[in-house]
Amino acid sequence: MSTILSLGEINRFIDFLITEDAAERDITTESVVDEDIECNAVIEAKEQGVACGIDFAEMVFRQLDPTINITKTVQDGAVISKGEIILELQGKASVILSGERIALNLLQHLSGISTLTAQYVDSVKSTKAVITDTRKTVPGIRRFQKYAVTMGGGKNHRMDLEDGILIKDNHIKFNEINGLSISDVVRKSRDNSEAPTDIEIEVDNLDQFRAVLQQEPDIILLDNMDTKTMKMAVNINNNKALLEASGGVTLSTVKEIAETGVDLISVGALTHSSRALDLSLNIL
To answer: Is 218 a catalytic residue?
Structure first.
């Protein structure tokens, strides 16, 4: 079970999904399936990927009927092959049919994130770079999506706005309008921070990079820089701050970015553009 999510948070979310889909008032199933008839079913992978959401899918069916028998044949983070069975179900056919779409939606979306993350992680495995997510998440399910990133081998960036200081371009622009330089902004942030915390600041050129480096931030985000400029920043940095590459990262470019020597590569696409993994529930 996830360490990012509490059991209470998961249960509330599952309850919401069941209510959203009116799974306990499935008029189609009620009209064609006798309530107490039982059946066997499986959830099967239609393509290779990295599984995620197995426990959540189990909880969907158990909240609809605690007596249902469920066998989990894989765990989150496992690489699954086309045709592999990931869940076996035995119980009331009405429950299995009513919970089918909720369980599949969860599994397909989260497994899609884990699968895409694993592809990025594999692409940079020969380097020191770590793949991280961003806050570019679907509203309401951020913690579930970020959990899926970890199951694909990635790391979580900030969970929310109180989870570390990240000074972005609009923070800088606002302060520049009011007479402060980018270096001043770093000093101001440090002076106004109530508790010790890492300070990260975004730069988009080497002039900004040199200026903020003198203020000793913990992390410098290299925003939409080409790899030639990134390499120059890495050399100038000389291991003083952690360097994060971000902006427009794709599977075709991530290895070249990693080879510049940056420490972190943040990829918004992991959570906002991943494709659902193809899974299906089959009645036996």
So the answer is: no
